[in-house]
């Protein structure tokens, strides 16, 4: 397997969407511009969703049209339906993401639709994306547990991920939305999905609620996974999953990967500075242990 791991940075979308206090559009743009200079290859910029349901993303068009795009960096955006897709394309999106869940209860809570209905909604998006030469990424939530129904059958994760792959998603991100997964369950889930979808088409999206994210990532790396979603300063959560903390912190993931001899192309010091800047804007300490330690070490010696 390759020793290169591709990071997909989530802080500007998944990291900010659950913040209750409004965040200035200028700060969102500044965050993405700063992240673009760290070597991250993909930065999810925003979500073209209903402001009624996710008020923090109401300025999606302003954010996407206002950022400074760096050559070689992808800026995907979340689009739950064809209307959102069309808005995103008008704003200049060249990659979009669609999402569903592996549990019916969470799908109904999150999208007000069954899994089957969400997959039906994707069909016109996929058709339009093929015509527009736009890449589509897929998210499957609750792959290791659901806040509504509890355990989620691995067979359901396989079924939904396979359906999204067959629809044409170039990559499927497998999300432990509430962070309850443990290494044995994470490994078994990935192995099962990889029997139907090539492992190089799969990504890991692990929240760190129970402190298991890095351990889960390690066993999935051993199974061949090489794409990881993460969020600077550990920001994030889920508005439909009470108690879920943010994604695993990008700084922690990169420190871990570099320690394993794997390459990311990301400047960890630069990213640590961005995480510190973001945490200051949010008025709280960074949730990244590596980020806090490295920032203090570097700046206390100056």
Automatic annotation (TrEMBL):
Taxonomy, superkingdom: Bacteria
Lineage per the UniProt record: Bacteria, Pseudomonadati, Pseudomonadota, Gammaproteobacteria, Lysobacterales
UniProt cross-references to Pfam families, sorted A to Z: HMGL-like (PF00682)
Limits of the Pyruvate carboxyltransferase domain: 5-272
Originating species: Aquilutibacter rugosus
Record protein name field: Hydroxymethylglutaryl-CoA lyase
Keyword hit for RNA-binding: no
A single MF term (Gene Ontology): lyase activity
Presence of keyword tRNA-binding: no
Keywords linked to the UniProt accession: Lyase, Metal-binding
Family annotation (CDD domains): DRE_TIM_HMGL
Alphabetized PANTHER family for the sequence: HYDROXYMETHYLGLUTARYL-COA LYASE
UniProt cross-references to PROSITE patterns, sorted A to Z: PYR_CT
């Amino acid at each position: 397997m390759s020793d290169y791991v591709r990071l997909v940075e989530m802080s500007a979308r998944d990291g900010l969407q659950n913040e209750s206090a409004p965040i200035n559009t200028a700060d969102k743009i500044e965050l993405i511009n700063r992240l673009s200079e760290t070597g991250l290859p993909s930065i999810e910029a925003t979500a073209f969703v209903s402001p009624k349901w996710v008020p923090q993303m109401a300025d999606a068009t302003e954010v996407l049209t206002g950022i400074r795009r760096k050559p070689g960096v992808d800026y995907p955006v979340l689009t739950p339906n064809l209307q959102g897709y069309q808005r995103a394309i008008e704003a200049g999106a060249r990659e979009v993401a669609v999402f569903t869940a592996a549990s019916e209860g969470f799908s109904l809570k999150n999208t007000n639709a069954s899994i089957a209905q969400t997959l039906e909604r994707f069909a016109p998006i996929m058709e339009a994306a093929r015509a527009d030469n736009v890449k589509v990424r897929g998210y499957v939530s609750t792959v290791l547990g659901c806040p509504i129904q509890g355990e989620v059958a691995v067979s359901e994760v396989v079924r939904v991920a396979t359906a999204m792959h067959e629809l044409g998603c170039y990559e499927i991100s497998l999300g432990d939305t509430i962070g309850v997964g443990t290494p044995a369950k994470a490994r078994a889930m990935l192995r099962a999905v990889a029997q139907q979808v090539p492992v190089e088409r799969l990504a890991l999206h692990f929240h760190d609620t129970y402190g298991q994210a890095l351990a889960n990532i390690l066993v999935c790396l051993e199974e061949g996974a090489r794409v990881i979603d993460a969020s600077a300063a550990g920001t994030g959560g889920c508005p439909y999953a009470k108690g879920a903390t943010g994604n695993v912190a990008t700084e922690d993931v990169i420190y871990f990967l570099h320690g394993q001899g794997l390459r990311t192309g990301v400047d960890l010091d630069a990213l640590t500075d961005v995480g510190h800047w973001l945490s200051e804007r949010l008025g709280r300490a960074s949730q990244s242990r590596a980020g806090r330690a490295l920032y203090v070490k570097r700046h206390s010696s100056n």
